[in-house]
Amino acid sequence: MTVHRNGSTTRAKGDDAPRGALSREDWPGLALAVAFCELAGIVPGIVTREDVAALNERETVDPDIAPPGWVVPLVWNVLFALMGIALYLVWRDAGDTPEGKVAVGFFSAQLGLNVAWSFVAFGSRARNTYLVGFAMIVPLLLAVAVTVVAFARVSLRAALLLVPYLAWVSFATVLCYRGWRLNR
Q1: Which domain CATH number covers 167?
Q2: Where do the TM regions start and end (predicted)?
Q3: What is the pTM of this model?
């Protein structure tokens, strides 16, 4: 597609894919971005597996809104895949622009906080792990919100892919707060 000075566009012969659509050339980069994000969830899960099992044996009261244990890893797998797709779209469409670099920087920061949250919350030997989780998740929630805004400046589609993640982290924030209050 060619963009002309007056803002009009013309498509090259054979260029019938909608603007922003994924092509075959995108698949390797997309797969790499999704795998990178999935690893950000898998590695802490493996490392803290025994700590999570020990947490389940503690006498803590879970909030009434706590989902069943089997739901959490399924949700996170979907969310990490969506994050990878969103990251790829921003990187592909604007990775070399100032806005794109800022968006990817915020994404990296929130992903680092996400990984740290897993290690701190699940690896903690604190009596009230909900308190530790709450203290860590508030900065994560803010970082995710800022990332969504930064992505929206580059790609609305990428920002929308992060909305379920923002919703889940918001829910987890409420869950941690309620758990902390129940177990004081």
Answers
A1: 1.20.1260.100
A2: 69-91, 103-123, 130-152, 158-180
A3: 0.85
